[in-house]
Predict the structure.
Amino acid sequence: MLNEHFPITISEDEVLSERDLLKKHEAGLFMNDVKSVRWLIVHCSASREDRDYTVEQMLRDHKARGFRTIGYHFYIRRNGEVTQHRHLLEVGAHCRPYNRCSIGICYEGGLSADGKPKDTRTKEQRYQLQQLLVKLHRLFPGALVRGHSEMPGATPKACPCFNAAEYQWIESIV
Ligand SMILES: [Zn+2]
């Protein structure tokens, strides 16, 4: 028998009590299985094409909205730098009510210098986004590639500011 007393810290997880452990499980921080991922949802950060929107700024903004961390699984900066913010099967916070069955990928930009919706993807972002979607398709072959604004019942405006149908060929790679 483990002779430890609560709170028990395992890795970065602090478990306050057995009840707390069950609560975390019920909160469903993770999806059930690989088949849970039915959509790969593309977003933009809705930041201006001539401005930086760093990981740190995004983290601050998402925490201000009450998220534990950045809501997207992946973020692609204008220079093509890709960062991961959620585990693959971790439930994200990017597209209600689809967070339990999707992976969220966001590129930096989506607005012109004067603040209007615009496809601002750089060559580097296009390349990295395609690479990432192809890899995710290998892991989740049944998942469909969609832009945020295409998701029925979602409440975005123009996000991701381009037609994600350009990536639909990825769905049929075998
Ligand atoms: Zn979005």
Remarks:
- Helices lie at 18-27, 55-64, 123-139.
- The radius of gyration is 18 Å.
